[in-house]
Write a structure and sequence with these properties.
Elements lengths: L1 H36 L14 E7 L3 E7 L7 E6 L4 E6 L5 E7 L3 E10 L9 E7 L2 H5 L6 E6 L5 E5 L8 E9 L5 E7 L4 E4 L9 E6 L18 E4 L5 E5 L20 E2 L6 E20 L15 E7 L6 E7 L9 E19 L19 E10 L3
Parallel strand pairs: 8-14
Antiparallel strand pairs: 1-2, 2-5, 3-4, 3-6, 6-7, 8-9, 9-12, 10-11, 10-13, 14-21, 15-17, 16-21, 17-20, 17-21, 18-19, 18-20
């Protein structure tokens, strides 16, 4: 019985202690409220809540500014730039999600966005760093490059694409061509696509590649550089082949120079001049040649064992030959296709000759330098004019 009374007494003490603590807390809060009210000025400035979700969409000489109005007392929102010298005031009604278009010339901008109520009270400014694009941006753009474009003249068109330009905002490319039924068709080529093959291409018609740009991938504006017709194609190498050559070395045979494989090479074993003769497989209006340097033995750089002077010839019967053009050849270590345009000439056979090598850069002790005699080249492309 004494134990029970002891428990009851402890319970009563704990209850009284809790009541006293609660009273002290309430009194303390009240005292703080009184202290705070001493510094409140009746009718003083009332600050609004700033906008939230401040973003933009980049356009061509214009900008879309997006934000959410979070303070229900807001009646206007000001958008300022150029150190508050220029601005747009947006009236706020029931719509609290705002998409405001502002015409702005190409450039970088620091925007400040402030909310206002009907009494003119304002919020703290929210800042947004953004930009617009214009003609300077447009002239820097190019349609996605083509590494090769060929046909076997069986209503086919094969295109191997170079990498797109995502840094500047390339998003996709449309291949626009005339189909066999005479209708214009558009085929979307995504950035990840490296090869396109179609089987309803109307032979002898031009086509276009049109790349669409959006700097921030938000598509306020679709920005497209001027497009031009593709007026030449490469004849597919499966139609023909090399029928004669001057020399070759080991496994680096002459047929490697016209097989569609950039990963092998034709290496000669005698001094200049060197040549190969190609049967194209049919007569075509030849308009140009592309020569790809070798890179297999030079760590991805162009093999300097290449001529400094070259020439091209053509024939209809492999008996009577006609000179097309002579060119200087760049045998530097820079790896890319060397392109040579020639007068449009109907031909069934073509001949490439490496005439001489007057000098060559040094890649290593055994490759390049003075006295280079061997010639190492990877691939020959033959282009013909599309006669629309």
């Amino acid at each position: 019985m004494k134990k029970i009374n002891h428990i009851k007494n402890n319970h009563q003490k704990n209850t009284i202690l809790c009541i006293v603590c609660a009273f002290i807390v309430l009194l303390s809060c009240k005292d703080q409220d009184v202290m705070f009210k001493e510094y409140v000025v009746e009718g003083g400035i009332s600050y609004l809540g700033s906008v939230s979700g401040l973003t933009s969409r980049i356009g061509f000489n214009r900008l879309e500014v997006n934000f959410n109005v979070v303070d229900m007392k807001t009646t206007k929102v000001g958008i300022y730039w150029n150190d508050y010298q220029d601005s747009v005031m947006v009236n706020i009604g029931k719509q609290k999600v705002i998409h405001q278009i502002i015409e702005l010339p190409e450039g970088e901008y620091s925007l400040f966005v402030k909310s206002f109520d009907e009494k003119g009270n304002s919020s703290n400014a929210a800042e947004l760093i953004t930009r617009t694009v214009g003609n300077d941006y447009l002239v820097s753009l190019a349609h996605r490059g083509i590494k090769s474009k060929s046909t076997t003249f069986k209503d086919d068109l094969s295109i191997e694409w170079l990498n797109p330009d995502p840094v500047n905002g390339a998003r996709f490319t449309n291949l626009i061509y005339t189909a066999t039924d005479g209708k214009l068709k558009r085929l979307r080529v995504d950035n990840g696509t490296t090869f396109t093959s179609i089987n309803d291409y109307k032979q002898g018609t031009t086509f276009k590649r049109v790349t669409y740009y959006s700097p921030d991938n938000k598509w306020l504006d679709s920005i497209v550089p001027p497009a031009v017709d593709e007026v030449s194609l490469m004849i597919d190498k499966k139609l023909g082949g090399i029928i004669e050559y001057s020399s070759q070395s080991g496994n680096n045979v002459a047929s490697n120079f016209y097989n569609g494989n950039f990963g092998d090479t034709w290496l000669t074993n005698n001094n200049y001049p060197q040549y190969i003769t190609v049967d194209l497989g049919r007569e075509i209006p030849v308009s140009g040649f592309g020569i790809w340097p070798s890179y297999q033995m030079t760590g991805g750089k162009a093999d300097p064992r290449a001529p400094t002077s070259i020439k091209f010839e053509s024939s209809l019967d492999n008996i009577d030959w006609r000179p097309l053009a002579n060119f200087d050849y760049d045998n530097s270590l820079y790896y890319n296709m060397r392109l040579f345009n020639v007068p449009i000439t109907l031909a069934r056979f073509v001949r490439f000759s490496g005439v001489e090598c007057l000098s060559a850069p040094i890649y290593s002790e055994s490759i390049g330098g003075e006295g280079t005699k061997e010639m190492s080249l990877a691939e020959l492309d033959v282009f013909f004019q599309i006669l629309n």
